[in-house]
Specification:
The protein has 265 residues and is of the alpha/beta class. The chain is 41% helix and 17% strand. The protein is globular, with a radius of gyration of 17 Å.
Length: 265
């Protein structure tokens, strides 16, 4: 079985196909998916999705790209994260690619999410783009290692991956790893310990080959696993097993909800 560790199936273009998406997941042996929050305004539809499906989990957070949205404080994040289907805080982080200018508000938001994660004891889902140095610095300053988490849709260097792993973070690969121009990312995927690897779709974005350019969905995540298996010279079933174990080890609340004992490291 495979697990999609990061998707946005609450987004309208996917939500209208909800039953089809879940059916496709089953057909492709994708046992679970983590539906990830991008802002507080739309968070109720994330939790509603997780409430309707036992194999869908939810997170709580505000994406760094969202400017004109509710800016939660630590107390609000901690309170909302008590929802029984919420297994993580995020996605949160820094993105200097899409936005420019004075981005101190982004850094402050990231700090707030890390502090909330430490208070409620849930792992972090971290987004970083063109901001690796500041992302890692803030993670260290705010003691993100106390809760760990995942660097989602990873596209950074091996050095960044190793620094995150040293803080107890997993590295999640999306469909990007299947792209022709992503050899440097495949090199990272080959080099890091399998115990630190997750797979994701980030759907509806970044569909893997052979679906590149189409709308992505959780049932496509086995293609990410297949590419990792090819790169690492192992069987795809080994990748499926390891990444599923890693998922439940990291997201202990998801393991509890799934009736699965946490896997020892």
């Amino acid at each position: 079985m495979f697990i999609d560790s990061h998707c946005h199936i609450d987004f309208p273009d996917l939500a209208v196909r909800e039953d089809e998406l879940l059916s496709n997941m089953k057909a492709q042996r994708v046992s679970h998916a983590l539906c990830v929050s991008v802002n507080i305004e739309q968070w109720p539809r994330v939790t509603a999705m997780a409430e309707r499906h036992a194999n869908v989990f939810a997170s709580l957070g505000v994406h760094p790209d969202y400017e004109d949205v509710t800016e939660p404080d630590v107390a609000q994040l901690v309170k909302l994260s008590a929802h029984p289907r919420v297994v993580a805080i995020g996605e949160t982080g820094l993105d200097y690619f899409r936005l420019t200018g004075d981005l101190e508000w982004q850094r402050n938001r990231f700090r707030t999410h890390i502090r909330a994660a430490r208070e409620c004891g849930k792992p972090l889902i971290v987004h970083t783009r063109s901001a690796a140095a500041d992302t890692l610095a803030i993670m260290r300053e705010e003691r993100a290692h106390e809760v760990g988490g995942v660097m989602h849709c990873f596209t950074e260097s091996l050095e960044v991956a190793e620094a995150a792993i040293d803080m107890g973070f997993c590295i999640s690969f999306s469909g990007i790893v299947t792209f022709k121009n992503a050899q440097s990312l495949r090199d990272v995927a080959k080099a890091i310990p399998m115990a630190s690897v997750l797979i994701e779709t980030d759907s509806p974005y970044l569909a893997p080959v052979p679906y590149r350019g189409k709308m992505n969905e959780p049932s496509f995540v086995p293609h990410v696993a297949a590419e990792l298996a090819r790169v690492r010279g192992v069987a795809v079933e080994d990748v499926a097993r390891a990444t599923s174990d890693n998922f439940f080890r990291l997201f202990s609340d998801a393991a509890r909800l799934a009736g699965r004992c946490e896997v020892a490291a």
